[in-house]
Amino acid sequence: MRAEAGSLTARGERTRSRLLEAGEEVFGRRGYHDASIAQITNSAGVAQGTFYLYFDSKRDLMRAVVAERGHELRANLAHATAAVVGRIPKEEAGFAAFFEWMARHRALCRILRNSEYVDSDLYRDWYRQLANGYAHALRTAIDDGEISEVDDVETLAYALMGIGDFVAMRWLIFEDRPTVPPRAVATISQLVDRALRTQTPPRRRDRWATRPRVGGAPAAGSDSGGQALGV
Amino acid sequence: MRAEAGSLTARGERTRSRLLEAGEEVFGRRGYHDASIAQITNSAGVAQGTFYLYFDSKRDLMRAVVAERGHELRANLAHATAAVVGRIPKEEAGFAAFFEWMARHRALCRILRNSEYVDSDLYRDWYRQLANGYAHALRTAIDDGEISEVDDVETLAYALMGIGDFVAMRWLIFEDRPTVPPRAVATISQLVDRALRTQTPPRRRDRWATRPRVGGAPAAGSDSGGQALGV
DNA sequence: TGCTAACATGAATCCTGAATCAGTTTCCAC
DNA sequence: GTGGAAACTGATTCAGGATTCATGTTAGCA
């Protein structure tokens, strides 16, 4: 990077941010390879040369776009689920927040799939970061007796991410709808509820027995930030 | 296409098939855009010019690779689940067959994600074709009382495809394992079983009431070819 | 007002690789 | 064994686009 994001004047910051946005838009519309620097700088309203004051290369911009939006998404999910009590309600809030965010960033959905060959770590890290936090949160919920035990929580995390990803893709990308329809969201709720809810819900005492608590309240946010869809 | 697959001599057929395989391999390794015709013809053991006797363009080869393998996969899944009785066992057989096939075609997994910008219909149709058959099979199973009702079967189909896709990606692509580990497969079985199995399994009579049958046997294959993971 | 560093410009450079084409080789029907 | 069709060859053409660079502009401070 020619100019670090931190060491820029307000003017420079504005230009960099315009280039990021233009990159997200053009990469999303044309794909990484068919997007030209000329289109991106044009969309950002700057000259070609200006691009290289802020990014080393086209690939560098791609990395920056994905990293930036990844942070945003994770922060968003953390925020949306933090105040929600109980793993299953957290899941529902998480899916809803995920769909909403994806609807506002449809370009990113497509960019991401394209990113595997631009920089293979970009693509992997996006999902690994989500999955790590997600798996931890699910493990905790299982230990608390909130949801059913499974052989491998990481697989569970990937399965849930896969559900979110594919359903978002179906409606937001394939159909180009502005939102995921309530019907689809409801279906996911049904599925997640059936798949995760412990078969014998009234045996709550096991939970308190396993992890004694003081107040008896479910201690919202105990999983360090409301992990849902990984955060 | 310069030379239709049908109107070729045995020699031509062999060359075309070598190009298809080389394409799958090189596209998978380097990605569509970074794969050059030279690499593909080199890998196939023919000269550059030969390529254009069989395919109109690089894009045309990509389309052919995806279409060819798509047919293979669907046939494979149909075959793997045809003889299995009951929707949930069919699901398990379907996931197993899917993972096995994907393990043998890891390149395709990556190619597919890349294909969205090569030819947007390629990518969509791959999943739409799978989802259509899958949704029908699930609808039938619901009507038969074999699995729980959901708001929208198509969403259910996409959710299940998402699970398969992401778990395959996790192990076969991210970790480059030769197979999806049994642990992960077992986890999916647990999930699918919990999510789909009717809550009150012993009330079988509802089923016979809804769709009276003669012999009483579950009529394996009644869903026209054993749809699992869409076929 | 004048000075300097940061910011901006866009035409020119340079490389890559898809697609072509003029010619060569293989195959097989007669 | 010969004619012609099918298959094959690979050097060449050509367009597109990432990156560079020589030069111009702005903003803020003394």
How would you characterize the overall build of this protein?
Two copies of one chain form a homodimer. Chain A has 231 residues and is mainly alpha-helical. Helices cover 68% and strands 0% of the residues of chain A. In chain A, helix 1 packs across helix 4 (58-82) and helix 7 packs across helix 8. The first copy, chain A, starts with 9 loop residues before the first helix and ends in a 21-residue tail after the last helix. Chains A and B meet through helix 6, helix 7, helix 8 and helix 9 of A and helix 6, helix 7, helix 8 and helix 9 of B. Chain A binds a DNA duplex (30 and 30 nucleotides) through helix 1 and helix 3.
The gist of it:
Chain A has helices at about 10-30, 35-45, 50-55, 60-80, 85-105, 105-115, 120-145, 155-175, 180-195, 205-210.
Spans of at least 5 consecutive residues with low confidence of chain A = 202-226
Number of strands of chain A: 0
Calculate Rg of chain A over CA atoms.
Answer: 20 Å
SS-derived structural category of chain A: mainly alpha
Listing every helix as H and every strand as E from the N terminus to the C terminus, the arrangement of chain A reads: HHHHHHHHHH
- Roughly how much helix do the residues of chain A carry, as a percent range? 55-70%
User: What overall form of chain A do the CA principal axes indicate?
Assistant: elongated
Could you tell me the mean pLDDT of chain A?
87
Largest interface: A-B, 43 and 44 residues
Determine the N-to-C terminus distance of chain A. 27 Å
Largest sheet of chain A: none
- Strand fraction of chain A: under 5%
Assembly level: homodimer
Tally of separate helices of chain A: 10
